[in-house]
Amino acid sequence: MKKDNVILIGFMGTGKSTIGRLLAERLGWTYADSDARIEQEQGVTIPALFERDGEAGFRELETEVLLRIMAEGRQVIATGGGAVLAERNRRAMLDNGFVVTLQASKEAIIARVSGDTGRPLLQGNLEERVTTLMENRKHAYDFADFIIDTTGLQPDDIAARIVQAREQAFRQQHASDEASQ
Ligand code: S3P
């Protein structure tokens, strides 16, 4: 059986941490943020880590931390926007929980992340960086169990819809398990 986790994926600034905290409260599970866990364990910020180990070094730590958090179970996990780039991570996410993509418009994303110095991939011309990365990652978040467009929705509403979608998926899974017995 799939491990009980909800794994939030999506581009930077789509609200994974905000929604993750709310969801964890609703489910009575633990909220975990993979970037925060990496920073805590390594004792450096994400930008400093990119400086120290390069993006490739960061990605290795990201996989390792994600696998460890998922193994704990009953976690609502806010992943970094690039965690989906590795096939290994995508497979592990689908095997270990209910994977949810948060989508937001480019304008909303730019408004949310502007002035933020904590995201090394967005330094420089923000609009240009977001446009290029969004284009490169156009289909990177399509593999989720559930995709939600957050435009015009309140965080509480988004969390409620995710809980509902998870319950529905659970019921469907249960029904198809019964039918195949
Ligand atoms: C990244 C997203 C960031 C962080 C790192 C790289 C990405 O997390 O993991 O800066 O490649 O999209 P958030 O999505 O929480 O900003």
Write the layout of secondary structure elements.
Layout: E1 5-9, H1 16-27, E2 30-33, H2 34-42, H3 46-72, E3 75-78, H4 87-96, E4 98-103, H5 106-113, H6 126-136, E5 146-149, H7 155-179
Parallel strand pairs: 1-3, 1-4, 2-3, 4-5
Bound molecules: shikimate-3-phosphate.
The percent range for strand residues is: 5-15%
CA radius of gyration: 16 Å
Span from first to last CA? 15 Å
Whole-number mean pLDDT: 96
**Helix-and-strand structural type:** alpha/beta
Tell me the number of strands.
5
Cα shape = globular
Helix content: 55-70%
- Can you summarize the main beta sheet? 5 strands, parallel
Bound molecules: shikimate-3-phosphate
Q: What is the count of DSSP helices, taking H or I runs of 4+ residues?
A: 7
The stretches of 5 or more residues where confidence is low (pLDDT under 50) are: none
Spatial sequence of strands, sheet with the most strands: 2-3-1-4-5
Along the chain, the helix and strand elements come as EHEHHEHEHHEH
What does this protein structure show overall?
By secondary structure, the chain is α/β, with parallel strands linked by helices. It contains 7 helices and 5 strands. It has a 5-stranded parallel beta sheet with strand order 2-3-1-4-5, with helices on both faces. Helix 1 crosses helix 7, helix 2 packs across helix 3 and helix 3 runs parallel beside helix 4. The protein is globular and about 55 Å long. The model has no long low-confidence stretch (mean pLDDT 96). Shikimate-3-phosphate (S3P) binds next to loops. Shikimate-3-phosphate binds next to loops.
